Amino acid sequence: MPNTGPEIQVACALIWRDGQILLSRRHQSAHQGGLWEFPGGKFETGEDPKTCLTRELEEELGIIPRNTYFMFQIPWDYGDKLIRLWVYEVVAFDGEPQGLEGQDVNWFSTDALRTLQIPKANDAIVRAIGLARVLRIYDPSLAHEPAVWATKTEYQCLLYFRGLSAGVQLETAVDAALTHGHQVILTLDQLPYFRAGCGVHLRKTDRVSDALTHLGKLNKPWPITAGIRDEKDIDRQRGWPFDALLISPVLETPSHQGMQALGWERFSELAGKVGVPAYALGGITHDDLFTVTEHAGFGAAGIRGFQ
């Protein structure tokens, strides 16, 4: 994973237990005192992100993480200092959390957590809670009937019915996907079938003004996604309210003919700049998920590898 030199490097964790998430409250005398935050702290000299996180959680909370998964990085400018948050998800740990440094700690449901005052730099973490690690993209030339395709996997996925025109097939597929616990992203032309549990995928051809107008009429669309290939795309879409990004093509693939593959190092470089979860797309299969997280990514996305 990339490192950035002059930034202050911080590791923090989204810690789960029984469907709730653990937060700690900053001391009133501290910077942004009184706000709730995801536990963690600054790197010490020579530490890598995971080592830092393990040490901080033991020192602050008295717990030792067992199952830890990388999520994404957040580069943040406070004006007087630059920081980089390395965000992890902890789903199992040893010990009972307590505020060993005198801080308040508490467990919150995801709904309650969204009502709390937190540092602005943590907003992207809140928006990423519950996001599926696998994004499956529909291809009518490869897949079954859309509603059947939507229910083929038992693990939770984010589903993108790319290229499927508005109509009964799309409506039935969206209903089937949501009924089976999946998440769905729709393009602007598919929004007549938007309902709770759906997000929106913004394409490079969409006008920003049109996209924002559509989004403003929807009831809490989530997640909002878009695709990028380079820094120009990042700059062009900086004002878009996305929760996650697809970076492609990482590897050579028939769906991106004529495009040079980015490769894993370039993917990692881009993923470290966007400040939201990044999906690797292009020649990716479910088996690549570990490789994705080893290169600063959040999830695996694909067409042929996920049919």
Short description:
By secondary structure, the protein is α/β, with parallel strands linked by helices. The protein has helices at 49-61, 110-113, 123-128, 146-150, 168-179, 208-216, 231-236, 264-274, 289-294; strands at 8-17, 20-25, 36-37, 40-42, 64-77, 82-94, 105-108, 134-137, 158-160, 183-186, 198-202, 224-228, 244-247, 278-281, 299-302.
Task: Give an overview in words.
By secondary structure, this protein is α/β, with parallel strands linked by helices. It has two domains: 8-128, Alpha-Beta Complex (Nucleoside Triphosphate Pyrophosphohydrolase); 134-306, TIM Barrel. It is 23% helix and 28% strand. The strands form two sheets. An eight-stranded parallel barrel has the order 8-9-10-11-12-13-14-15. Strands 1, 2, 3, 4, 5, 6 and 7 form a seven-stranded mixed beta sheet that branches. Strand 12 (224-228), helix 7 (231-236) and strand 13 form a beta-alpha-beta unit. The longest helix is centred in the N-terminal third of the chain and has 13 residues, at 49-61. It is globular, with a radius of gyration of 20 Å. It starts with 7 loop residues before the first strand and ends in a 5-residue tail after the last strand. The model has no long low-confidence stretch (mean pLDDT 93).
- Report the structural category: alpha/beta
The CATH class designation of the largest domain is: Alpha Beta
User: Strand share of the residues?
Assistant: 25-35%
Quickly give the CATH architecture of the largest domain: Alpha-Beta Barrel
- The overall pLDDT, averaged over residues, is 93
The biggest sheet, with number of strands, parallel, antiparallel or mixed sense and barrel status, is: 8 strands, parallel, barrel
Low-confidence stretches: none
The tally of structural domains comes to: 2
Assign the CATH superfamily of the largest domain: Aldolase class I
Major beta sheet, strand line-up? 8-9-10-11-12-13-14-15
Say how many strands there are: 15
The CATH topology annotation of the largest domain reads as TIM Barrel
Tell me roughly what share of residues is in helical segments: 10-25%
